[in-house]
Amino acid sequence: MNKPVYKRILLKLSGEALLGKSSFGIDSDVILLIAEEIKEVVDLGVQLAVVIGGGNIFRGMQESNVRDIDRTSADYMGMLATVINSLALQSSLENIGVDTRVQSAIEMKEIAEPYIKRRSIRHLEKGRVVIFAAGTGNPYFTTDTAASLRAVEIRADIILKATKVDGVYDKDPNVYDDAVMFDKITYLDVLNKDLKVMDSTAITLCRDNNLPIVVFNLGKRGNIKSVITGQSVGTVVEG
Fold first, then answer.
1. pLDDT, position 66
2. For residue 206, what are the contacts with CB-CB under 8 A and spacing of at least 6?
3. Span 158-176, average pLDDT
4. pTM for the structure as a whole
């Protein structure tokens, strides 16, 4: 069995990853598959933290004619959507025997711990999956930025950015048949080419802290384990 090449990782999931074939909400089969993949990694002794977006819930609300909401309120609503997703993932993980903790950047002590860096690191050292909810706790910052920030704070070795495509392309592969995937690309090229890997604040934070990112297809079973055991999967963003 291949041994992991990373000790501590942060997995960034979009809220849309939980949709499955639905247009809104959480697909229980999909979230169970994600939980099983996470368990495979944890069973290898890897310390794993997770950040999940909230687009499967909040964007669905926006499409249901919920309008005239100012940006600050909308961002806080999105943060609450990430809490819902985090609790759903926690339940799926614990149902298959994985110890977890949800830490929220917005205090809600009845359902989640407050985010405390040292406590999160201690949980990871004890083999628990830590799910960071509510983004950074501040409006105008995306969950991509939250993922980069938390990864730097907990001293993660790498960020795994789960997507619906195999990696980073020079243009949208769902639109252009001649789109070319990069095996490796630099942070600066991502920014200059505006490749939409993560938002510019998140990419800059990773660049300033020499934190590599692997962008990979979550839809292919076993990809998370393949990445952490050093196999060539997706696109590496570094340098």
1. 57
2. 148, 151, 152, 159, 187, 198, 212, 213, 237
3. 93
4. 0.94
